[in-house]
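During the no-cost extension, the postdoctoral fellow (Dr. R.K.) reprocessed legacy sequence entries with the updated structure-token encoder. One reprocessed record is reproduced below for audit purposes.
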Amino acid sequence: MTDPRPELLPDEQFPAAAPEPDAGRRIPLKQVISWAFWDWSNQPFNTVILTFVFTALYLTSDAFLTPAQAALTGAAHERAIAGLTSGLGLAITLGGLLIAVLAPVIGQRSDAAGSRKRWLAITTFLASFAVGLLFFVQADPAFFVLGVGLIAAGSVISEIAGVQYNAMITLVSTRTTVGRISGLGWGFGYIGGILALVIVVVLNTFHWFGLDTSNGLAYRLIAVGCMVWSVVFAIPLFVNVPEAPPAPARRRVNFLASYVELVRDIVRIFRHERPLFWFLLASAVFRDGLAGVFTFGAVIAARVFHFSTNEVIVFGIAANLIAGVTTIIAGRFDDRFGPRAVILFSLGALTVVALAVFAAHDAGPTIFWVLGLILCCFVGPAQAAARSLLATATPRGREGEIFGLYATTGRAASFLSPALWTLLIATLGATYWGILGIVVVLLAGFVLTALVRIGGRTAA
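Re-encoded structure tokens follow.
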């Protein structure tokens, strides 16, 4: 059968890709598990630091208001807290812009040099170090800028590390197993988040076994614990997973010239791999919706359904457990029916259930326990299927670059859920209206993905 794409002139072609690996090759289980453990090692940063504990319960709390601001009540106090949350959002937004600039070029250069694992090691330990430095963020307004700066730095470095990690999936999977292995990695991550949150709950329940936790020391020690966790559990990957070989015919150029190469490659993808180009854009939208579900889930639980602090953390544990188990299971469906089908089913279910959460905003906490955990059944499968689809659609030897573009496009759309969330709440005056902002992004991602014909797989 002839190639349906137009013949490329020599100067239009991509550099030759690495030979397609044998789909029947046997990959040692030790390598697969070691690769998946990096997701486990990285998850406390997302779960404990970014979502449920450090930023939500410490960095945006009264501890970082002046005494006069902390003494305010009602709307005035809410405005003071909003100053902290907006400061955090600004720092993360600036970090996102830096990711958009750096991620694809670093991925491209690691492809050319065969240095994905080296880059992953450097960025993993730098991100861990940034988290560890949060120990010095004392409970005082003077330390707020240091806190949000370190959070933003950790986010940037962790995202760049994720580019290398995602690209390495082709080293531990074949075309027929990439779905379940991608799901395994995400599942390990969620389960790691569960264990980290359980440890926090135990320490709080026993009041840190008598340790003086004034001046934010409890949260600062949690940050140190996350640093140690990240370093220790990342080690198996560096010991057991091989380095990717340099991509054949990939030119090694200086850093600035890499941007010229990047622009050329984007043009080539648009001209000759159009479905891949449109999937990168569609996934940017729906991944922002998925991020919105987890980012604002704790806020919805606390502010709309009136969960207590401990209930929010326990909900986070349950949410990660459900997400982890369903993601591992969904990997089997990915390999059988194709990642695109898993993404569409998950996005459709998320849209319907999120609308139900909005409709039931006055029904009390029990309904959110049910509907919120149902939501969590579909977030992980969509995330894992997006990664496996991209891995199967990417030309061999270009994984770092394409996953770098994946990170960049994701960051380019990362304002959608927060912006709609903020706009609807500010306009209509109640937190529950923000749920509709997330619904709009999920629905847009569903429609865009439905229009992209890529990654289909015939059922066996």
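The longest helix spans residues 74-113. Residues 339 and 386 are 7 Å apart (CA to CA). The remaining legacy entries will be reprocessed before the final report is submitted.
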